[in-house]
Design brief:
single chain, 235 residues, alpha/beta, Rossmann fold, five-stranded parallel β-sheet, four-stranded antiparallel β-sheet, 9 helices, 9 strands, disordered C terminus, binds zinc ion
C-alpha cells in the first residue's frame, strides 16, 4: 500500500508558484496547503492556534516559526492527513523551518521537494508589471503603453502599482528569499529529495515539466489514473 505524494514546492516571488501548485495538487489529487490558507482556515474555525496566528497577521507581523509549525503539525500530523498526502506551498522557507518540519513529522515529511527556478531577469519585469486594484484588490499585469493609473476591468476602481513594489524593494525581497532559501535548498539536496525545475516558459509547458519530474520520482499511487499517460514516465 502506498500513500499519496507528500510534496514541498519552493520558488521565488513571481515564479508563478501559486498557479503551478494549484494545478499540480489537482493532478496528484492531494490537498494544496499554503500557510496563508492554513492561517485563515484555523482562524475561521476559531481554534486557539488560529486565534494566535490571526493576532500576528492583524498587526502586520510575521507569524513566528514555532506557531507555524504547531499549525502544520495540527493539520498534517494525523494519520489520515498523512495518508492523503499534501503539497506544501510557501513552507518551509528557511533551513530552520525545514529541519523543524522533518523533526515534527518524521523522515517522510516530504517524498520530494521541488524548486521552481526562474531567473531574476524574468521575475523582475514580471513583478514590476504587477498592478493591484485599490477597490476590489484584483491583481493584474500592466502591458507596455497602459495608462498609469489604470481602470479596473472588474469594478472600475483605480489600478496602480503597490507602493512597496518599487524596483528596489522587489530586488531586496528576491535577495532576501535567495539568502534564506539557499541553505534550505542545499539541505534538501543532501537528503536526495530536491528537484530543480526550469520555471521559464508557458504555463502549460512548465506544468508538464513539473508533473513529469514529480511523476518520475514518486509512485503516483492513488492518483495515477488521473494523470494522462503522455505526461508520465517520459524523459
Ligand atoms: Zn477592481
Amino acid at each position: 500500500m502506498g500513500h499519496r505524494t507528500r510534496l514541498i514546492v519552493l520558488g521565488r516571488q513571481g515564479a508563478g508558484k501559486g498557479t503551478q501548485c494549484a494545478r499540480l495538487a489537482a493532478c496528484l489529487d492531494v490537498p494544496h496547503i499554503s500557510t496563508g490558507d492554513l492561517f485563515r482556515a484555523e482562524a475561521a474555525a476559531g481554534t486557539e492556534l488560529g486565534r494566535r496566528a490571526q493576532a500576528f497577521l492583524d498587526d502586520g507581523r510575521l507569524v513566528p516559526d514555532e506557531l507555524v509549525l504547531d499549525l502544520m503539525a495540527a493539520r498534517l500530523g494525523g494519520s489520515e492527513a498523512r495518508a492523503e498526502g499534501y503539497l506544501l506551498d510557501g513552507f518551509p522557507r528557511t533551513l530552520a523551518q525545514g529541519q523543524a518540519l522533518f523533526e515534527v513529522l518524521g523522515r517522510s515529511a516530504a517524498d520530494v521537494a521541488v524548486e521552481l527556478h526562474v531567473p531574476t531577469s524574468v521575475v523582475l519585469p514580471r513583478l514590476a508589471a504587477r498592478r493591484v486594484c485599490g477597490s476590489c484588490g484584483a491583481t493584474s499585469s500592466a502591458r507596455p503603453g497602459d495608462p498609469e493609473p489604470n481602470v479596473c476591468v472588474g469594478c472600475g476602481g483605480e489600478v496602480a502599482r503597490r507602493t512597496d513594489d518599487t524596483d528596489q524593494a522587489i530586488r531586496r525581497r528576491l535577495e532576501a528569499y535567495d539568502r534564506q532559501s539557499g541553505p534550505l535548498l542545499g539541505w534538501l539536496e543532501e537528503r536526495g529529495i530536491l528537484l530543480r525545475i526550469d520555471g521559464v516558459g508557458p504555463l502549460e509547458v512548465v506544468h508538464c515539466r513539473l508533473l513529469n519530474a514529480v511523476g518520475n520520482r514518486v509512485p503516483l499511487a492513488a492518483g495515477e489514473d488521473d494523470v494522462p499517460d503522455d505526461l508520465v514516465g517520459a524523459g
